[in-house]
Amino acid sequence: MSQNGTAARLGTEPVGRLLMQYAVPAIIAMTASSLYNMVDSIFIGHGVGAMAISGLAVTFPLMNLAAAFGSLVGVGAATIVSVKLGQKDYRTARQVLGNVVTLNVVIGVLFTIVTLAFLDPILYFFGASEATISYARDYMVIILLGNVVTHSYLGLNSVLRSAGHPQKAMFATIMTVVINTLLDPLFIFTFDMGIEGAAVATVLAQAVALIWLFRLFSNKNELIYLQRGIYRLQKHLVSGIISIGMAPFLMNLAACFIVILINKGLKQYDGDLAIGAFGIVNRISFLFVMIVMGLNQGMQPIAGYNYGARQYHRVNHVMKLTVIAATVVTTAGFLIGELVPELAVKAFTSDATLVDMGARGMRIVVMFFPIIGFQMVTSNFFQSIGMAKKAIILSLSRQVMILIPCLVILPLFWGADGVWFSMPISDAVASVIAAVMLYRQFKFFKQHPAPQL
Question: What residues form the membrane-spanning segments (predicted)?
């Protein structure tokens, strides 16, 4: 998007400077996105009650499932746009933009219809009880009705970032956080809408941001913009988008199934409040995960462009810098989770039992946090350069090959502790697999250097 030089500088400016320029806005945006989810939890926890936190946590698998379809389109399209800009194929980049709009509408509508038709059975399957089902249902009905808005907003924002406008993508995310934070207390307390008010605030905030994104992409003076003839789905583009987006799709799909297993295990051995404790721990730890995802988003257009331009030395360099930064972030999460978990959990609830459960769970979950940044960056790296199969292997190694078996087996011997300890164990093993795959890829780059441009 923008002028030709905006994309071209991805292949010429110093890699460290580019990573800062792209990653900092993305980090701010992703941190804001994490705070966006935390704000809902905090207002619900203090404004509705401890059991409402558990009800909200029950919806996480369904939210992950919705995110899976959103990432299938958004991430796949963003990667293709970056590579096509590196190849100077601007016409195809515009067609990808149009296909993103159409795919998000089609998938969003179908997802909403199917899930609303079977919402109660789905929520019970995800771990809801008679005490939490009403909270989960009230929240998800509104979220699902706004699902097309959510998908479209996330998809267009991903393309905007990859097309050379990380600051504007950051602004869109911050916009949703600010609006949501202002509307949450209004709908929850002033209008006395409870958990439904939090859902309404979420959808309205995303709708405002989506309108702004459509306005940006309607500017015909830009390199990539919305125009006639680009909305018809093209088989080769859809196939490419889905192929590359399959890695984050499967990762989110696995996350959905994993949260189901976690919810069911905690409910069986510790009751409904344990699900709420996991919900809080998940929100806190996700803040650091989202910062790493911001680093990944900053790396993605740089790695994608230079891979498309066959400048492997720059691909190598941006990967190494991103791993270092990610490790610093996850180590900070480790220290907070081990040293002051009670303080973090109390931000969400004043219920003493829930605070104790959450603090203990957090200490366990962050046990191997210093190394998961490396694993996350490695998976995103392969995705960024279009190596979908390797990205899928890395994405599934932690969640399907390791974590799911642990969640099935360990609780049989350790009860609720088996559920909690499954998470750090899978982090450690998956990081080893990532290290081996990355070493082999770097070895290839070293043996096949492209001319320094």
Answer: 19-36, 43-60, 66-85, 97-119, 139-157, 169-191, 197-217, 237-262, 274-296, 317-337, 357-379, 391-414, 420-439
pLDDT, tens only, 223-273: 788 888 888 999 989 999 998 888 778 777 878 889 999 999 999 999 999
Other Cβ atoms less than 10 A from the Cβ of 214: the count is 14
Q: Using one digit for the tens of pLDDT, what is the confidence trace for 185-208?
A: 999 999 999 999 999 999 999 999
Exposure string over 280-310, b if 16+ CB within 10 A, otherwise e: bbbbbbbbbbbbbbbbbbbbbbbbbbbbbbe
**In 47-87, beta strands by DSSP E:** none
> Where exactly are the structural domains of the chain?
4-447
Of 301, 321, 312, nearest to 444 by C-alpha is 312
| Separation CA 407–CA 426 (nearest Å) | 10
Angle between the N-to-C axes of helices 272-308 and 50-58, in degrees from 0 to 180, rounded to the nearest 10: 50
Residue 36 contacts residue 177 (beta carbons within 8 Å): yes
**Cα 247 to Cα 231: distance, rounded to the nearest angstrom:** 24
Rounded distance, CA 360 to CA 417, Å?
10
Q: Which residue has the tokens 């399209």?
A: 77
Contact 47, 352 (CB under 8 A): no
Burial class of residue 413, CB neighbours in 10 A (0-12, 13-18, 19+): exposed
Of the candidates 345, 374, 357, the residue with the CA atom closest to the CA atom of residue 420? 357
Q: Are 163 and 7 in contact (CB under 8 A)?
A: yes
Distance CA 373, CA 138 (A): 35
